[in-house]
Automatic annotation (TrEMBL), chain A:
<dbReference type="GO" id="GO:0016255">
    <property type="term" value="P:attachment of GPI anchor to protein"/>
</dbReference>
<dbReference type="GO" id="GO:0003923">
    <property type="term" value="F:GPI-anchor transamidase activity"/>
</dbReference>
<dbReference type="InterPro" id="IPR028361">
    <property type="entry name" value="GPI_transamidase"/>
</dbReference>
<comment type="subunit">
    <text>Heteropentamer. Part of the GPI-anchor transamidase complex, consisting of PIGK, PIGT, PIGS, PIGU and GAA1. Interacts with GPAA1. Interacts with PIGT; this interaction, via a disulfide link, stabilizes the expression of GAA1 and PIGK and links them to PIGS.</text>
</comment>
<keyword id="KW-0337">GPI-anchor biosynthesis</keyword>
<dbReference type="GO" id="GO:0006506">
    <property type="term" value="P:GPI anchor biosynthetic process"/>
</dbReference>
<feature type="active site" description="Nucleophile">
    <location>
        <position position="127"/>
    </location>
</feature>
<keyword id="KW-0812">Transmembrane</keyword>
<keyword id="KW-0472">Membrane</keyword>
TrEMBL record, chain B:
<dbReference type="GO" id="GO:0006506">
    <property type="term" value="P:GPI anchor biosynthetic process"/>
</dbReference>
<keyword id="KW-0337">GPI-anchor biosynthesis</keyword>
<dbReference type="GO" id="GO:0042765">
    <property type="term" value="C:GPI-anchor transamidase complex"/>
</dbReference>
<dbReference type="InterPro" id="IPR019540">
    <property type="entry name" value="PtdIno-glycan_biosynth_class_S"/>
</dbReference>
<protein>
    <submittedName>
        <fullName>PIGS transamidase</fullName>
    </submittedName>
</protein>
<keyword id="KW-1133">Transmembrane helix</keyword>
<keyword id="KW-0812">Transmembrane</keyword>
<feature type="transmembrane region" description="Helical">
    <location>
        <begin position="459"/>
        <end position="481"/>
    </location>
</feature>
<keyword id="KW-0325">Glycoprotein</keyword>
Amino acid sequence: SHIVLMLADDMACNPRNPKPATVFSHKNMELNVYGDDVEVDYRSYEVTVENFLRVLTGRIPPSTPRSKRLLSDDRSNILIYMTGHGGNGFLKFQDSEEITNVELADAFEQMWQKRRYNELLFIIDTCQGASMYERFYSPNIMALASSQVGEDSLSHQPDLGIGVHLMDRYTFYVLEFLEEIHPASQTNMNDLFQVCPKSLCVSTPGHRTDLFQRDPQNVLITDFFGSVRKVEITTETISLNRDLAGFESKLPRDEAATEPLKYAEQLPVAQIIHQKPKQKDWHPPGGFILGLWALIIMVFFKTYGIKHMKHIF
Amino acid sequence: QVRLAVPVAVVFAPGSVPGDLPRPLPFRDVEEMEISVNVRTSVTSQYEMVYRGTTAQEEAALDAATAREADAALHPLQDSSLGSLTVYVVPETSSLLPQGISVYVGKHRSALVRAGGGLAALRMRLRQLTQVMSFTASSIASVLSDRVPDGQLGPDTRRHLKSSLGYEITFSLLNPDPKSHAVHWDIEDAVNRYVQPVLDKLSLVANFSVDSQILYYAVLGVTPRFDKESSSFLLSAHSLPHVINPVEARLGSSAASLYPVLNFLLYVPERSHSPLYIQDKDGAPVNTNAFHSPRWGGIMVYNVEAPASPQASLPLHVDVDMVRVMEVFLAQLRLLFGLSREELPPEFLLESPGNEGLADWELDRLLWAHTMENIATVSTTLTSLAQLLDKIGNIVIKDDVASEVYQAVASAQNAVAELAVGHLHLAFQASKKAVTSSERAFFDPSLLHLLYFPDDQKFAIYIPLFLPMAVPILLSLAKIVRETRQRKKEPTKMD
């Protein structure tokens, strides 16, 4: 489908989850957000900054399947939602990496250059989320964040049975708001900006619309959510000649019967297993390291005198 | 700047030569028109007109009874290379064209025009004809749409399929009620008979692959309304946009290819919702009972007649009339590509292309638009690649990326040169090669820009590493400097 989902995916089947394969938004267990139609495209170790930027810019190795690609064109509206731990100008990926706001802005500019989007809605729910959209400079981007720079985004409620907080406040209230939107709804973006005021969210949600060409008043929520298409009634038909006397049936191109390949032949396992490791070329050390070592050695021998060298060698 | 040359031959039948020709036949003339896209970009269209009289064979062909027969007889006598046009001017009193029709456009690359009104009227007709048969200013501007300042193009201009090397067509039969209807469709036969000829005609434009599937228990996401007057169910026009998304999740697509997919769905409504009609904005039922979505595909609703006797055994056997279905699907395919026959100047008559699906000049229209789009895409892609390399200095360009870039530039220049001479076929092939190379260069996985390190991070990492090491080095350096200075002073002291 048209959703690319990148998830560390260690929660639903975590041994501590008393109801495995479910993730609920509230401890009343009403809404299972990890339901039947959730397809995780990138999970656990595949969720890296590099893969995320590859998906956005399209610089993907040719062997990647269709579901892991962003196949958008200049008429596509894209929604990007990011959540996790973050700080002033960055978002954490997997405890070992970060993506900065400058990289994100550059990736969006690459997308704009190649016309990979018509309009882009960027929602981020992290601490100091507003810092992530400060650096955007490409047109047609609208951004929402759960907190301003210097503020923390707080989570909603813990489930004492599991021992963790289930959802963030901003996400929880946005989800509640969106559950009431149906495909024919005329609600516009200004209503989305009002979701989760400071009284509920404790942090101040922010938004940025200066790069967006249309007035947010006129932008429907369903422009980004719900995949509502433009349709046209078909009024023309062509007339086909029903009885084609003497039509030749097109023979399939590959007439020669090829033997079906057995599994082992399709995958050159023997070659892969016995492959020698690629020899990395040895490069002489670069200028900075050489200079540093030269400095150290020179100082050492100047200080202690050159006559000590013969004791060493 | 790009120049689009269209070779046009205007052939005057005896008795149709206007009196006010500037020179005696045969002569050549060139008409140029500037299509301005934005302040810096403009495309010049150049119509190279050759005016001449008919040969004996052409005269014999024009003696036919109807325009269609004349067109068929004239076809082997023409120069029918891609992009060229031949116009035959027949006398005003000729009976070839029906009453009230001044221009007849055949299914190949020729047209018959009724003379009358002198040279000025003829020129106007020729201009209208070339606009219909090759390209218009707006069709060229719309494929260069990312360069046009916003607001000048209408909102509907970017809805035709983008130029691509291939397309995948999927025919799906949706049967939500298998207990009542056992639907059979001979899709393979229909594809071979009706779809394949159209795709063969379009094979110059792109590669097509066709597959089909049957989905059971797939429902439309919208509940139709029951209308008492017609005792049928109606789907209103404003609920149609919500139909596609719930169904789309169930449609598969080939995991391997990256070509755009065109989905054509045939929906057989449930017994409890039959018959189902689609209403247009005015409330009238649509006679094709079908709708399409730009760049996605089309959906047709196929109603099954209620059985004669209410005790008929379920499930009813239904054999789908594939001709009716394919007439709609192929029309939708044409509309998705942007070939519409709706807006015509008055007094024009277009010949139906029959089972081939599209006329030769419609293929030319597609090729003009796609060639321009390809050339524009190549230049935008390579420019943005160059800008990326300017901004990030330490990206390494591999040799094969470099060779793709060179090839893209060479092919694009070749395409522009061929367009200027009027060789549409060669220009299109060159533009396809240019686009393939430029996309391969731009989307090469090795060009991912390196991660950005903000300055404070660089200090934060390197200072704890180098500061403790640097302290004794700097102190020793200071000691050395002091010693050398002292030694310089000492010789004067010792002496």
